[in-house]
Design goal:
Layout: H1 3-7, H2 16-35, H3 45-61, H4 68-80, H5 88-98, H6 102-117, H7 125-209, H8 214-242, H9 262-271, E1 275-279, H10 288-308, E2 313-320, E3 324-331, H11 347-357, E4 361-366, E5 372-379
Parallel strand pairs: 1-2
Antiparallel strand pairs: 2-3, 3-5, 4-5
Helix pairs in contact: 2-3, 3-4, 4-5, 4-6, 5-6, 5-7, 6-7, 7-8, 7-10, 9-10, 10-11
Amino acid sequence: MRLRDRIWPGLRTRSIVLECVIASVSVISIGVTAAQPDLRSATTAPLVLAGTVVLVVLLLTLRRRAPLVPFLLAAGLSALSPAVGIAVPFTSYAVGRYVGRWTQRVVAAVVGVLVVIEPWSPAPVGELVGRVLAAAVVVLLPGAVGAWFRTRELLLTALRERAERAEAERELMARDAVLTERTRIAREMHDAVGHRVSLMVLQAGAIEMAAADRDRVEQLAGQVQAAGRQALDELRQMVGVLRAEEVDEAAPLGPQPGLPDLPRLVEQSRDAGMQVELAGAPGEAVDPVVGRAAYRIVQEALTNAGKHAPGAPVTVTVDRAADALEIRVVNGPSAGPLGNPPSGGYGLVGLGERVRTLGGKLTAEPRLDGGFAVEAVLPT
């Protein structure tokens, strides 16, 4: 900390003109005191003069940090020489402005009023009334003005801090909303586009296996082409939602898939060469959000089975309990070489977040026979 900041804290924010005025008034007070011929006692003249010099220094150094010190010194010196009383209003204002405790303010006000009124010195009623008015103007009024400025500054500071805190919280909430939306979009793109691409990979592998059968190759190639178009359409729809500036040219959005689309999903997996069996029925209609979550669970489970257990039979079971929808997707051990299929590791994590959002439960774990099981319970 610099010496200036230690001696004059807050000099950058305060009015330098005010400090110049205080210094000028103090110098004038010293001059008037030195030239005053009728001091209360000739023996006190050196004391008043020295005290006034000290008062000037204290006004410039302790007016903010310890305003009671220059105030009490000014009050004591004014009792010895009325000429020093010119410093009392400045010190009274400093006490009200920079002292936070009301007890100290009240004590200072009582001392200042007693010094100005001088109750120990008998005087006529008219003069006593004048002293009381002088005490109110010289001591109480500056102190009240200082207390008002302090209260106003504290209120403005509190309002400024509250506004800054609200702005920070709003930015944090906006950042969290953006992150949440990005996570949701990434999960939807992974579920939809990732499944299509996985089917295309399986179908491409089936084309290689059926190279000798021209009709089968043409059929699989058509399925790959159809899956690629669907992946592009779904990707275009999601990207179109993100482009707010292209509202007039928004991509056509279709309804979100749900439970009624499960047979078509299973059929697409069969066309890709997977052995998939759909068992059970959801019964009565469920909430669209629950149905969409069930569809995504089955879709991700089929995608993982196709990538990590090629050739294994898969069973999809959907049952409707009293107050829940139960989904179970079980695949056996891989019937072919596993290879090294690409995997980001976020599919099951995204499903877990989706299920927890609905208040359900998701279990995904390997089986003793080498297969894998994905089970979910979604409240309805």
